């Protein structure tokens, strides 16, 4: 009986040590994404099947943006929405991004786009522009 207890204890210690220090250990903390958020790696796999919407301000868009992204902010909604109407949306997802996940602008823009384009699949980019830049292929 004592041998089983010792064996069980040693096994538990080795399991905990492996979980803590193994270089390929699983993450014990997972980011819980909103239902409409798409991870960067998934959006990259979609390739040309995405209409990118940059919900940051004009200055940020000029400093850098995802190739082909259209600027669309709440303050310039009417003027900038016209460019989205000209896009071919059939078979393409709309992915809206801001600077990072702290900004609520992409979620508001995505909500409004769903109202304007009820048949389109509209997502937000998890982590936003900063995640996109960090995960360059």
Question: How would you sum up the major sheet?
Answer: 5 strands, parallel
Order of helices and strands: HEHEHEHEHEH
> Which CATH-level-2 architecture?
3-Layer(aba) Sandwich
List the strand order in the largest sheet: 1-5-4-2-3
Helix-strand category: alpha/beta
Are there runs of 5+ residues with pLDDT below 50, and where? none
How many structural domains in the coordinates?
A: 1
Number of E-state strands? 5
> How is the CATH topology named?
Oxidized Rhodanese, domain 1
Count, helices: 6
Overall shape: it is elongated
Integer average pLDDT: 84
Query: What's the CATH class label?
Result: Alpha Beta
Fraction of residues in H or I helices:
40-55%
Instruction: Please name the fourth-level CATH homologous superfamily.
Output: Rhodanese-like domain
Cα-to-Cα separation, first versus last residue: 55 Å
Strand content: 5-15%
Report the C-alpha radius of gyration, rounded. Answer: 22 Å
